# Entry
Amino acid sequence: MIGTCHCGAVTLEITLSDGFKTARRCDCSFCARRGAIAVSAPLDGIRIITGADNMSLYQWGTMAAKHYFCKTCGIYTHHQRRSNPNEFGVNVAILSGVNPRDLGNIPWVDGQNHPSDTKKAP
Ligand SMILES: [Zn+2]
# Structure
């Protein structure tokens, strides 16, 4: 699939891990503000076609996750996940031909109690 930011500077070629079955929202302090629905892609599932030099990286807290966005229009494109660093989360709304409304009810991930922050006995 092709993904683009809003201004068109960044174009990505994206292969999802499992279609839209992985779609989720997260209520951690960052994702709740960003408000995007994410789907999973493997680390080799994203190829930057244009705009690699027009992307910015945002990291916070444990600095584990890497959130990428377009420097010009500010649109979040994808992030390397903290809970599974072998995966990217991709903003479904950048995918051409996809209307997030068509995805129906999207489950929420409990980002306020992130698995990497809770040290519960198994
Ligand atoms: Zn842009």
Remarks:
- The longest helix spans residues 29-34.
- The two ends are 38 Å apart (CA to CA).
- The chain has one domain: 2-113.
- The chain has a mean pLDDT of 92.
